[in-house]
Design goal:
Length: 869
Amino acid sequence: MPSKIVHIDKFRELYEFDPGSYSLEANKRTKVYEGSRRADGKAVWIRVNDGREINQQLFELEALKTLQYEHENLQAYLDYAIVRSRNFLNEEAHWLVSIEERLEGIPFTHWKKAGVSDKKVLDQVLVGLLKGLDYLHEEGIFHGNLIPENIFLQQLEGGYTPRLMNYGFTRLFDAKKTSSGNLFIGSSGYMSPEKIAANRKLPVLSNIDLWGFGVILYELVTGEAPFGSKQAGYSLARIFDNILHLRLSRSLKHIKQPYRELISRCLVLDPLKRAQSAAELLEILQPSPVLPSRQAAPQQKPRIKIVPRNREEARLPEQEEQAPHIQLEPRVHNYARVIVVGDVGVGKSTLVEKITGQKIEEQEQHFPGINITAFQCHYLGQQVQLNFWDFKDHPVMHHLQQFFLSENCIFLLVCNAREQADPSKLRHWLNIIKSYGADSPVILVANQFQESKQDMDEYLFLREFPSIRALVPTSAKTGEGMEKLMAEIKSAMGRLLYLQNPLPPNWLAVIERLQQAEDSFIEFSQYRKLCRKLGISEIEQETLASSLHYMGLMLYYYDQVSHQPTTVLEPDWIAQGVYSIFSYLSHERPVLAFEELRNILDPIEFPPEKHIEFIRLLRRFQLCFPIGEQQTQYLFPLFLPHEQPPYPWESKNDLLVEYHYDYLPKNLFPQLIVKLHGYKEAKDPFWRHGIVITEEDKRAEIIEMPEKKQIRLRISGKHAFDFLRDIHVKFEHIHLQYHGLRVQAGIPCNCQHCIHNGQPQLFDYHTIEKYLEMDRSGIECYKSGQRVNLASLIKLEEGKGKKASNPGLVSDWLHSVKSITQLKSILSSQSISPSGSSKESERQPQPLYGQGGATKRILFLASNPNHTA
């Protein structure tokens, strides 16, 4: 099996195919080629999808699932790969490739075109199609694009066996690139009305495939399309109009039974009144049971549920364990996380109690945390467990948002409509959700709405935050609006594409084992060992960990500093530790010594051997950095004094720079201090909203102005703009941590008009860089119309500031050295410390211990979501 990501040359070593060979299917998105596997010569079809239009992570997730499906009426998926190469412009391109069983027989389209006269053969084909659909639907997946081109017929003695193709991936194309704007693609003549209309209020159920089945059957018995087709010149709008207004009752009278009843059950406008399952149609076609039980089918893999024999087994011990019990049909097929946020006193906990019907038991604890409540619902033929995360009201939790908020979740933003929701507060929360949750669906919940005399203007926010799905008025006291809210949550679940299929059985087994664990964490090596025992490959282990993070079962992080083993923890382990440390620190005492952790942290939850792990986690989220010669003390910028200390600043001809934000996160500037502390010298001051840093003869003052949502810099020195480039890289690293953060970085104009006006034009930083590359000497101020000298604007010396082609490459520098004597002379003139490290290397932050450099993965386990975490 090829690795997850391979170069085109490596892929050709594994599979042989001719790009000019006959293509089974050809369109803008997908092409299918004939090929063979070099290892054994097995004939295959190679389906190539344009990687620009498909979410790569979801493709991998779907591919791993489809590899497990086995049924006589499904084409088998054999392998998958992400193939990368470069085009003639040297631009990187990638394709998402699935390796499929090459079928022998005839395409369904040829058979349909020739006409069907043998009822026995027709019934055989229809039964096979329905069996294949029933298997997919029982697995929690629907085809989504059931058309004749996705059916192949294998000829057997006395008939045909239909094989469904191209299933499992039809939902992965970007919704913005489909004609309907829905989450699915499809061919116009076979698309169900709810797909064409893309009505988010109308549920998209698995019986969208039964609509396509009905259209195909109608074509087989009449030779015509029931509502028109693209081939006949019908537009999608005209087909939809025919669906709404055309009555098939007259033409159905001439169709014999049982086909008439099959079609009439399938081609129903309302999906709730349409046939709900393929099994229903099989009963019409063959009154006797046509499907063996799923347990008895030899080609099908049973679903399993792991039940630990005892608590010792749940601890995941190192020694070999006994085989677990196996139960068929697990109760839960999938999970999703619903994060409930809002201001203090808006009724978040009461709202969760009304939705779930469960009383939240507040435990006696002296630190903030998260109430996690599990609630099960039925969705797309699956039993889905929703994990409601309700953050306790405490100021410390605002500093922990980066730990717990995530994309691929559903957010409930609760406000008190009785007190008239403050737009600025709602916008603040929506910005936080966007920063950490990306485009996750958001539902605005107006609690106590019946007591409010004013309506909320949801459109005020919809224009700015398109991820808002709905505004739902509720009453947490009376329960009014809860049914509507639950319907909107289910609608939002359609945006979480991983919910469209149930989890593989071995993934569910891992979840069962982790939820039974008694400890707050397990080593990541134990997690890998458990996965290997249950047949989960190393690639799947990474995907599973990310998925469980989204679902609210674990918290999973990457740490690029440490190479130590990773850990699985409960969320409250973080909350308790951070709260304990923050309670100890103050603006008069922002520094924590490592040995003080023994007196601060709970000795049971935080044994001494875990202290280094916890500090590393805080550093990963840029809450602190090491100081002192031994690097065993840690400074927390959040607790620096607010008052700006006095310090000298002699230069007057400074380079001025401004960063303007549409929303300035509270944690951004403290994180920036952590990033920049390597430049700070002992004499340089810093405080809660500012820092002064030094680089040789250059000096920079960086000050946050929260009320204006700005960060301003002034830089002195001969090469101020070069120093700005280094600082700007640090800014960019921080900005990337916040999804959708809009920032304008620029330099104020210094023309006479702007200087006297007090509101100078801000020249974009990247535009100035581009002008320097183009050797432009001036830039125009649109406020005054004057041409501003670029060198004067950025305090640039003649001939300086232009970007080098490969800055910082030692090899280029060495090529300029002509002799050993010259090299010695250059080295002797540099400031080298006795240990051999330069001043620059001393300035860089050091890893906590070891050499670092490798990637660390951290998992946090929510082991029991049915009570307060």
